Amino acid sequence: MTELLEVKLYFAYTSPFTYLALAPAYELERTHRVRVRFIPYGINIRKVYGPLDNAEADRRKVRYLYLDARRIAKQYGLTIYPPKKIFSARLAFYGGLFAEKQGRFRPYADRVFERFWKHALDVEDRAAIAGLIREVGLDEAEFLRYAETDARADLDACFAAADRDEIFGVPTFVVEGEPFWGEDRLEWVIKKLDAMGLRR
To answer: What is the C-alpha to C-alpha distance for residues 59 and 51, in angstroms, rounded to an integer?
Structure first.
């Protein structure tokens, strides 16, 4: 059996464009001999876009990005409501890392993305994340122990990998060291995989 090529996907639950890239990323495994590895990555939104909590801040670019995201989401039948504040996804990342170790990343991630972007999930709420862990068939108490012990080191290792790959934003696909930033670069990812003879 031919070994699958690893395609890295640096992502964030609080990135609307990562949400838009999710289903197409899953599809890559069906169309090509690849395995997509989802790697959490956090960006400092205030550093990139300014103090968005400040009423005086210039939010034009951010408003436009959400407008774009919602236009694309409509094509996919997805709902994206812009968040009312800047959220830390650290706890949700812990949940994803835990679910990945148990082979339940995708059902967990699907729920986080869908509910967060419908304003039906607070990714900073410990009980809510633990509830999702339980919902996908995993042990809630075991997750909470993980969140208090190994989770931070595991997440730091993901951020260190992002630094090595020179990641600056999400979603970013990396194919054999070549980065493709944005859900709209997926076509280029596919062309590269096709050129490598990986089409199923």
So the answer is: 9
